[in-house]
Specification:
- The chain is mostly beta strands.
- It is 8% helix and 42% strand.
- It is built from three helices and 40 strands.
- The strands form five sheets. It has a 26-stranded parallel β-sheet that branches. Strands 2, 3, 5, 7, 9 and 10 form a six-stranded mixed β-sheet that branches. Strands 1-4-8-6 form a four-stranded antiparallel β-sheet, with no helix packed on it.
- A hairpin with a 5-residue loop joins β30 and β31 (370-372).
Length: 502
Amino acid sequence: MNCYLKLYDNMKMRKVLAAWAVALAVMCAAVGCVEERLTGDPSARLEFSCDTLVMDTLFAGVPSRTSRLMVYNRNDRALNINTVSLGGGERSQFRFNVDGHIPPEDNRLTDIVIKAKDSLYVFVELTAETEEEVSSLLVEDSLMFLCNGTESRVQLVACAKNARLLRNCSLEGDMTFDSVRPYLIYGYLHVPEGNTLTLTAGSTLYFHDGADLVVDGNLRSDGTLDAPVTLRGDRLDRMDDDDGTPYDYMPLQWGSVYLQNGLGEHSLTYTVIRGGTHGIVLYGERNAAPGLTMKNCVVTTAGGYGLYSRNGDVEMENCVISNCGAACCLMLGGRLGMTHCTVANYYTYGTRSTPAFVVTNYETADGGASVSYPVKSAVVENSIIYGGNGAELALMNDTLRDTEFNVLISYTLVKGEQQDGGMFNRVLWSGELGSAADAVFMNTDISDIEETGYYDFSLAPRSPAIGVANKEVAIHCPEDIRGVSRTDDDGPDMGAYERTED
């Protein structure tokens, strides 16, 4: 008997719930009718979040990131948008969807209802067509809305770089890259053994996320003061932060430049490398020291090392290496000559424990064994080694093995407490400077980028590096990285920049 009563009660409850469901459906339908009562009044118009949608700069042939447009109905009644279409029709290079509704091939949607006091999302993308021998393109169209007999237009504008796309490319023979169009690299660009890649003045290489330049042959980069060679990531937009920081100036945006020919001869002049995993990685072997000459170069904002040299033979003049997650310069054995260079590490994208500048004659291999790499000669003259940590110079000598460790730091400003010994000649230590120790460079952060610009490692007005470099050394490097004379005043300055009065 109790079972029958429970069954009866359950059936009764189901009928009640069903009745309530019907009633609620009727009520919702009635409310919906009220909300979506349309007006055909021509004065009831749409409004938009902008009248011109300017998209981030992009690459021709590569789909853009999605841009967003808001469409508003400020009226008390719903509006029926008769059509939403692209002015270019089927031939338009733009694409759009409205609240997830994708138009057919004619790029035209019809009868879209926007409720009273409501809004719609319109998402716009673009794949710009490529054109031969043109470095950049301006792509334009319009998004047209017809509502109650009134047509409204939102202009669509984008600038596209017409790049040569290279994907997992291994060069065949010697190759020269010019500045007519930039190069966009996916995966890797490989220079085989016996071949030379030459980058002419003004050429730009954009690397996609994780892409590397791998050189088993030789690399030559012939930039000039007015037309430097640039290697950077391919993101052309900005971060959504207070300063609108360009992704181009963020670390880990692409891979690295690997120079891994033990007998390679590489030369870089007026070349900028920024935003990679590492800047330059130079690999030599115990009996094979590749040569690398760098003049008037900038390597900046690497997630790891700016320049890592293992048993290399490196000559640097008027170079700036800055803001790296590990050391800006690490020399593991080999030779190094550094004249009028600025090494400045104010990396803020993670914790950094490694000093800005490291010279060592050993490394610890897997398993804990120590492997020796003799430092045959490391001479740093008229330079600056500085940064945000307390000590930015590390000289690591394996005295137990009596491995060569020939180092001379001369006429150089160094962040850290004074060290004595034959390796130092006329070194200016920050520990001796007092308050002047914090007034070396013009700008050491990226805040207020619109006003102060990206980090500026030229010398501040009262920098302790002014006028105290070795004149005899400066004569052989008479102009700074900007072409400013070092010999026009009483004394040359330390570092890559000669101080000039505005």
